[in-house]
């Protein structure tokens, strides 16, 4: 335990700061720089009042009110969530639209990685065979086929990094003509076209399901031409096909189809490509009060480096940006982009209202134990991941970024780790950066996930799960800029396949979860 008390204030106007010491600080600890003495024991990452705060007065962190004091709070007190009333959400009218014009960031040139160039120009960081499924009914069969491909076929194709079944719970038993059904359908379509799958699309279908293969991947959706310059027919193994007699016939058909795609994937080689081909999705999960102090600011600096390199960086998580909507709309590159932010967040407000909740449903017991009092405080620490560049584009859930949509992108997704990751895959993500304070073993089979710990204590305990320890920022060992550069360089190494993330080494893979706001039947 560090005997010297360390407390972190984010902005000069803040009337609270967080305790950085491992194990927290005991009551009676003197904080001479602030001229106060702790009246309570304050756990690590939790807030201490720097001045007397009157009942009803604003508690300020990140320079904004994160709550209002329910009772008078004396200087030196532990400011926990039970002492705060949450501010109301900002209305979506009358927002500043594209009012902030930051000076352009200087270009960053000469950075490259080794990637797999695809026919549509996009670049993969891994060379994977993906098997698309139209419906959950085929999942068990595909799982067994994938295991056999891994054991029997992959050893013959050493340039292929792996095989992944794109399983999900959609496809049948759903209101497939509902106005919002296009969201899960296009998500699945666009994931099949993720750059890490090399344009090799194969589908396993049951036969009688609502989501027919032609509806999932209509003509024109696969940007690959055969030798005659024509789009090849969709490669479908249909389990109800009368040709299949018995279970092994289905497995054999999937393996035979896979082999054709594996041959082509195996012929591919990595080539040097500019860093501008990175499409990085960032999100957080299991956040604590350090998230907004160490890991997320480091990711924000990394985001600026990516923008400067001409790459694409997506941030997401609607409920975690909602309380910072003014900061987003004002930072939009154009009024149209600002309007798109308002449209997406307004749609999401209504989606939550239908379930009779609001953005406050986001925070978890772990967030609160980690010092985050409410969603406002969580949001202020979350959006720092986006850095300082203007928001260049907004993406609706399930849509795919066009090649020319570079720079900082707000991909409007739920904050659920799995749904957000799934939607970022659909957007075309080829690398994922995930920050965590409480700790999560999250990983995706489709794309490398770099996990960043907000605290040294977590990084030490989870030494073989966390790829980067941003807690060194709070320990005074590393500046935010240095941490950002370290992340940027790590991205290039991981993208090149020179380094594997811990989640890849352990093969820690969470399931894809499609966002289906439409009814099921
Ligand atoms: Ca999340």
Task: Count every helix, treating DSSP H or I runs of 4 or more residues as helices.
Answer: 14
Number of strands: 23
Q: Helical content, roughly? A: 25-40%
Cα-atom radius of gyration: 24 Å
How is the biggest beta sheet arranged?
A: 7 strands, parallel
Which class of secondary structure composition applies to the elements?
A: alpha/beta
Q: Say what oligomer this is.
A: single chain
What coarse outline follows from CA principal-axis ratios?
globular
Q: Which helices and strands, and how do they pair?
A:
Blueprint: E1 7-8, E2 16-19, E3 30-31, E4 36-37, E5 47-49, E6 58-61, E7 64-69, E8 78-79, E9 84-85, E10 112-117, E11 123-124, E12 128-133, H1 139-153, E13 162-166, H2 182-192, E14 201-205, H3 213-216, E15 235-238, H4 247-266, E16 271-274, E17 279-284, H5 295-308, E18 312-315, H6 325-331, H7 335-354, H8 365-369, H9 375-382, E19 391-395, E20 407-411, H10 417-427, E21 431-436, E22 449-453, H11 456-461, E23 468-469, H12 471-474, H13 480-495, H14 502-506
Parallel strand pairs: 12-13, 12-14, 14-15, 17-18, 17-21, 18-20, 19-20, 21-22, 22-23
Antiparallel strand pairs: 1-2, 2-5, 3-4, 5-8, 6-7, 7-9, 10-11, 10-16
Helix pairs in contact: 1-4, 2-10, 5-13, 6-7
TL;DR?
The protein has 521 residues and is an alpha/beta fold.
Q: How would you describe what is shown here?
A:
The chain is of the alpha/beta class. It has 3 domains: 79 residues, Roll (Archaeosine Trna-guanine Transglycosylase, Chain: A, domain 4); 158 residues; 186 residues, no CATH class. The longest helix is centred in the middle third of the chain and has 20 residues. The mean pLDDT is 95. It binds calcium ion. The site of calcium ion has 7 residues, from strand 17 and helix 10.
